[in-house]
Design goal:
heterodimer, A: 441 residues, alpha+beta, eight-stranded mixed β-sheet, B: 221 residues, alpha/beta, Rossmann fold, 35% helix
Chain lengths: 441, 221
Amino acid sequence: MRLADTIRIAMSNLWKRKLRTTLTIFAVVIGATLIALMVGLGVGLQNYVTGQLRSLSVPDVISVEPKTSLGVASVLLGATGFGAPQEVQEGQAVPYLNIKSLTGEDVERIRAVDHVDAVEPLVYIMPRWVQLEGDEKKYQLQLLGSPLYEIRQRRMDVGRAFEPGERGVAVIAHDFLETWGWHDPGEALGKTISIRVPLGYQINPLSSKEPEGQDYQFEIIGVFQDSILSTEVAVPMEDAITMARYFNQDNEAYTDKNMGLALSVHVDDPNQVEAVARGIENLGEYAAETPEESASSLAGGFRAVQAVLSIFGLIALAVASLSIINTLIMATYERTREIGVMKAVGASKGTIRLLFTVEAGSIGFWGGLVGVILAWILGQIVNLVSHLTFLKDYKSFDIAAFPLWLVLAVIALTTAVALVAGLLPAARAANLDPVEALRNE
Amino acid sequence: MIELRQVTRTYKMGDQEIHALDHIDLEIADGEFVAVVGPSGSGKSTMLHVVGGLDTPSSGQVLVDSQDLARASDRELAAFRNRRVGFVFQTFNLQPTYTALENVALPLVFAKVPPQTRRLRAQTALEGVGLGGRLRHKPSELSGGERQRVAIARALVTDPAYILADEPTGNLDTATGREIITLLDRLHQERLITVVLVTHDREMAALADRQIILRDGRIVA
């Protein structure tokens, strides 16, 4: 039988029982809509976050941490007293994790890896607030010491990166423009901000007393492009280290004795990033992550969320497949005689099987297609509502996205599920004894 | 040329074995018009089904133009039914939702004939049985005799060498039945088609060149 005839006959067979076929397709539609919508929401969110991450991260910088076999679980287990209490060393950074701070020796070993251009510590400080000169109000911020090679590659609305050896300057996040009422990013340039660094960690919810601290002044020389790091303030490494030493009350912080818990490694050739990361890991004591890897590990997290959400759709699809089996088995009963006639005039088992398989596949195909269209419509409504409400400031971001691969994958999935569901009825129909079938009233 | 050699067809009915065909030996020459008669349950229909490749014998050889249907694959049997034989049934077995034209064209669909040619050949076949004016009618809009003529047109449309008719007049009144048999006889004479007619009606059988009488799965005359 020609393919066109197979499809035509299969369609006309399905259409003979309009209501039943429509209901069966509708069951598939529910599953397809759920899956497409859930994955679509995940894709939208993932696009947003990874897009942001890409715009933030610099492609030729690797982050390196000491390798540890102990995870978060051991922190919890250690804290709750599983096993004998572990010995605590003076100066040990995080006792339960048994992580040692990195040293100048580590920096030298990593610097010796081929294509490593520079190694800098990742300086971590918890500031109290940032204040604009002449403004009483204090705002939260995320403070980062930024190496030159990194800040030079960041995208900015206006201004410039630091010069070598330059101090007392800062590049601020786009969102501060609104905070301080600047309509034109250019207005920010030349303004002075003051950052309060407290003395040590101040996480004491029982105390309302403002801890002791010190203010550091910076001139704004640039504004980053809009990103998810909406409270970011980047300052030169030297300034960050000065602040960190005050914060930690440790003048040896970020010297050869103690380089902190993580390093930023600049690679001199963008094509060697992967090789350098593996080279550092081969030293045996470090874990290295490229920007590509951090993006994909984040994407992996989103995929897990999508998978969980899609389970509902898969359950619906499983139920729909039972409905398909039922529909087609009913059809084999109803059409027993017709199948007998087809065999008498020259249809082989294969032909009958193909006919029923195509009918099953069509139910899946149309269900998937309608489901994707429905999910797209619902997605547009979600996008519209989100743009009017909680995503007012991110009009360019669609929370639900339906790339072509998703559309094709959902239709392929529903079609495949339907084809599998069609196996049993198709085999039943194909194996009908023509003599018996012709006798059927 | 149809040759049956020691053909047996047994069915299981509960614990009982029923010999629908019991060591049948038979030859039907090309261009013959043979009537198979006998009481109901004598194995007439089973023999027709076996000769037409619709049923396979339990043992023995079914040679049609030297092809042994007893050993043919499902695909080969389907092709055989499609091209070499045409069935005509007592209950017509037309697809109720198809028009006369579509019913007649159905075997050509399985023969992979393009749609244009299909329509043309189906129309010619319908005109050949005197139904040129009934192409777009559905079976429910046709009389019994007309329905059987549609079924005959369907059997003829692939130009088969054999027409196998199983009680084709059983659901028709005597006059219409005689018309159908006359039509089959005419096709046999004009186109030299071999016709095997299963009937329990002696009068109809008398029109055939030869009569084979079956009883309890054996040829008795």
